């Protein structure tokens, strides 16, 4: 199945794109283009598309936060499997940026099959590059992120 983040309805708005550029610049992780090579994409039309560095074995699924272009397969859900590769730090930080900008209009916009503490590196990157989150924002994100986790099996 893989370590997956699900983000239905989130979009790469101009503000989120600017945040993403700042997050990529502030991260010590090498961020590449969609196939783990070249430069990441971050335009209003194409959205944000990135991956880890394929040359050193740090890539997995391409992270794609949709822009204004109609996707080739519109029925495909918005998710990314990072397998906890180093680029997960940047992916979770971008998802935090996008989710925080959506708080006023939506709830439950980002989920993960990980725990909130798996997002610690992304949270630290976000707070270092963008701003500190309020306690209310952290709680809302934690509740959203952990909604996707399967219920523990009770013996």
Task: Name its key features.
single chain, 155 residues, alpha+beta, 3-stranded antiparallel β-sheet, 6 strands, globular
Walkthrough of the structure:
It is a single chain. The protein is of the alpha+beta class. The chain is 32% helix and 12% strand. The strands form two sheets. The protein has a three-stranded antiparallel beta sheet with strand order 5-1-6, with no helix packed on it. It has a three-stranded antiparallel beta sheet with strand order 2-3-4, with helices on one face. Strand 2 and strand 3 form a beta hairpin. The two termini are 23 Å apart. 35% of the residues are buried.
Distance between the termini: 23 Å
Major sheet, described briefly?
A: 3 strands, antiparallel
Q: What portion of residues is helical?
A: 25-40%
Spatial strand order of the main sheet:
5-1-6
Shape, principal axes of CA atoms:
globular
Measured on Cα atoms, how large is the radius of gyration? 15 Å
Question: Any chance you could write out the topology, listing elements then pairs?
Answer:
Blueprint (H helix, E strand, L loop, with lengths): L3 E3 L7 H13 L14 E3 L3 E4 L12 E3 L13 E3 L6 H15 L8 E2 L7 H10 L5 H11 L10
Antiparallel strand pairs: 1-5, 1-6, 2-3, 3-4
Task: Offer a concise description of the structure.
This protein has 155 residues and is α+β, with helices and mostly antiparallel strands. The protein has helices at residues 14-26, 88-102, 120-129, 135-145; strands at 4-6, 41-43, 47-50, 63-65, 79-81, 111-112.
């Amino acid at each position: 199945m893989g370590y997956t983040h699900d983000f239905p309805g989130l979009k790469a708005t101009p503000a989120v794109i600017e945040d993403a550029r700042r997050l990529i610049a502030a991260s010590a992780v090498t961020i590449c283009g969609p196939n783990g090579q070249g430069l990441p994409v971050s335009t209003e039309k194409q959205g944000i598309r990135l991956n880890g560095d394929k040359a050193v074995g740090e890539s997995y699924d391409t992270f794609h936060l949709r822009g204004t272009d109609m996707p080739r397969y519109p029925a495909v859900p918005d998710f990314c499997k990072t397998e906890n590769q180093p680029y997960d730090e940047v992916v979770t930080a971008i998802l935090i940026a996008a989710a925080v900008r959506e708080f006023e209009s939506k709830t439950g916009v980002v989920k993960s099959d990980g725990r909130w503490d798996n997002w610690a590196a992304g949270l630290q990157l976000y707070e270092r590059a963008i701003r500190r989150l309020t306690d209310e924002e952290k709680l809302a994100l934690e509740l959203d992120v952990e909604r996707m986790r399967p219920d523990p099996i009770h013996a």
